[in-house]
Amino acid sequence: MSELLPLKFSAHARLKDIVGRGLIISDDIAIIELIKNSKDAGAFGVWIEFRQLGSSEASELVISDNGHGMTLDDIEHKWLNIAYSEKKNSAPSVGAYAGSKGIGRFSCDRLGTNLQIMTRKDGQKPVKLDVDWTKFEVDGRDQEIGSIDLFASEPTLEEFRQAMGPERAAHGTVLTIRGLRSEWDADRLRSLRKELERFIIDPDNEFSVNFSHWKYGPKHPLNGPIENKIFEELDFRASSIQADVDADGKFITFELRHDGDFLFKSTEKNPYSELRNIKLTLFYLNQPAKAFFKRRTGYRSVEYGSVFLFLNSFRVFPYGSIGDDWLGIDKRKAQGQRRFFGLRELVGFIQITDTDEKFEPVSSREGLKRNTAFRELATDSQTITSSFDDELVYGLFHKAMRKLEKFVVDGLDWDRIDRTIGEDNDEELLAGNYQYLQGEKPVLETIDSVVTIRSPQSHIVDIDINLKYLSSLADQESQDYDDLVETLEERFDGTPIDKLRPAEKRDLSRFISRQAKELAQKNRTNRGLELKVGQVEKQLESEQRKRIFAQFETTADQTRIIQLHHQIGLVAGALLKRMDRVVRRYRANEANYSKADLFDVIEASLFEIEKIQNVSKLASKADFDISTNRVRNDMLQFVDEYLENFKDVGLGWNLRTTYENPEHCQLVRSFRPIELTMLVDNLVDNAGKAGAKKLVVRVYSSGKDVVLEFADNGSGLTDRFSPDELFEKGITNTSGSGIGLSHAKQIVDELQGKISISSGADGVGATVRMEFKA
């Protein structure tokens, strides 16, 4: 047997095509790779310049940096050593390395046919190397890449400074690329600039990239620093969440923000074994935020991308590209259209500083390996075991996104949240700062559900909640919704249902959706009350009513619970049928379904909803039958004690209310308590909307009649409508909807009385007068 001859791999000259133009898939990526090399060389500044080539229209692309630079030995044994990466065998000089494959240098071949490298390490002589890439584009079998000679030289320091550019560092590297393989017209340059803005992130302002083209002046929008400030500006126009994993990997800090102000900040133990030094920022884009995004970037948000991933300051392709659902967001949305976010509603970034190389780029530059670190970051299922307990947790992104989603989808119905936090916490509320401690009285239920979703209680270390701002959000949302309801008729005036504009349909859908939510909540309340009835049957006994508004303990007795349950069930059932009918007719786009039909339903629904609100208020203090059955009692005493026992009736308007009955008139009538409270509430609200600060409720006799008056010192009546017209639906003297006085007349008519309105004494304010037979 003959002796085996030793063999070796040989690399053909065309290898540079495979490594360069094959793996580096676009010119934009090529430039990014060269910027990465500059950052890894310790540069804090990079200049990308398209310079004029002599007197012709041709350009050369010059990429220079103020990094460490190279010596002749570095050129020979490192830069010319294919696939060698010094970065893989040494600690980074500044943070983590952006690249580590040793192929970024072939980006120069992707961009042009000729390359000149001029470089200088501080205190050393400059070095120049010229590379003609066309010499490697041969097909002979024996043309190995190492057989093609390249020649280096030593330029003068002045030549190096001239190549680098005036007033820049005396060390670094200058890459001059000629014979550009692509046409770089204005559109192409704008596209490049936008791509660079999306590829580079520098939150600490430690690394700058500048861009210029010789054809355009210094003030031209194409020229100047590459900056991506869209996320900073979005902070003031959107709801967002930030999640920071500290450098030691011990804690995660979540901060929820709304229009630039923080709502809560929580700290919890980090359950992810591989995640550290990560910053995540995610924005929810409603319609106004989308409009701002389009004005600011020139893109619709859906054309810009979604959630980008930055590894060591540079974007990892293709994550975040249009249509790339790498986080399973749209897939998840398909399971619940109304409840879940989609790619169209989200934009943001994840920034990873990876000094431990937990995240591994694949060689094709097509993303990261799906290893443990990647799964802990991006998985959308509860499959990860906590590193310090047996809890199963979701990936970091989905933990953060779910908190933001809970806030937007469930939490922004602020007018429905319970603001009560307990008397002991009033000082913290006024200070706008409430410290969450286990065992203390709970904070607002809604925001607490946002804090704790997908965060086990055992993981939470500390939380800070801005209750003062949260309360103001609730007030504003409530007012916005009231304004929506009040303007529905005006906005839809004369427009058939099937002709509504998309914005009008959205508002109508919002109204219908809100009613559905309220009905669902009432149904849940009913079920809870049924359980409560069973519990209290063995504990409570009836008490004799001493006065209409007897002061009982806060726990309602069995009879009142049953009545409350019965009344809400009746009203909610009728309302549910009515709203179901309007939804079905609306979806069917019935041509004969007019505006008048729609608003008959809306007005009737508002009347019933007002009943539900007053039922729960009455039930805690009144021991009479609060169901639809009437009571027979002194109606005037009822009004007196209602105003006395519910002192907050006018507080929302900063309105002081007094009751006067010097003649001790009585008016025994059969009436529904709920409707009488609605009458009082509507007249108080009208006074508040008119800007009144004082309201006098006065009772006196007039012949055989008893008069009940509500006299305020507000803005008075307008000349636009006659007093009688103000009781018609949709006619209003204030900023209201024109429904309150209509409801008041409906109630007084049923009580067989007469109602009128007139200007107050000396033309100040207005007086609503109700007359009843004694």
Structural write-up:
The protein is of the alpha+beta class. It contains 21 helices and 26 strands. A nine-stranded mixed sheet has the order 14-13-15-12-9-10-11-19-18. Strands 5-4-3-6-2-1-7-8 form an eight-stranded mixed sheet, sandwiched between helices. A hairpin with a 2-residue loop joins strand 13 and strand 14. The chain is elongated. The protein starts with 14 loop residues before the first helix and ends with a strand.
Largest sheet: 9 strands, mixed
Number of beta strands: 26
Task: Please give the alpha-carbon distance between the first and last residues.
Answer: 132 Å
Classify the helix fraction into a percent range.
Answer: 25-40%
Give the number of helices: 21
What would you call the shape?
elongated
Strand order of the largest sheet: 14-13-15-12-9-10-11-19-18
> Which structural class fits the helix and strand makeup?
alpha+beta
Beta-strand content bin: 15-25%
Q: State the assembly state of the protein chains.
A: single chain
Radius of gyration: 37 Å
Q: What does the average pLDDT come to?
A: 77
Task: Considering the chains and any ligands shown, give keywords for the structure.
21 helices; 9-stranded mixed beta sheet; alpha+beta; single chain
Which helices and strands occur, and which strands form pairs?
Layout: H1 15-22, H2 27-40, E1 45-52, E2 59-65, H3 72-79, H4 107-111, E3 112-120, E4 127-132, E5 152-153, H5 157-164, E6 172-180, H6 186-199, E7 208-213, E8 224-225, H7 230-234, E9 239-245, E10 251-258, E11 261-269, E12 278-284, H8 287-297, H9 301-304, E13 307-311, E14 314-315, H10 329-333, E15 346-352, H11 372-378, E16 384-385, E17 392-393, H12 396-411, H13 426-431, E18 434-435, H14 445-452, E19 460-465, H15 467-492, H16 502-536, H17 558-587, H18 595-619, E20 631-634, H19 635-645, E21 656-660, E22 668-671, H20 673-689, E23 694-702, E24 705-712, H21 740-750, E25 754-759, E26 766-773
Parallel strand pairs: 1-7, 13-15, 21-23
Antiparallel strand pairs: 1-2, 2-6, 3-4, 3-6, 4-5, 7-8, 9-10, 9-12, 10-11, 11-19, 12-15, 13-14, 16-17, 18-19, 20-22, 23-24, 24-26, 25-26
Helix pairs in contact: 12-14, 15-16, 16-17, 17-18, 18-20, 19-20, 20-21
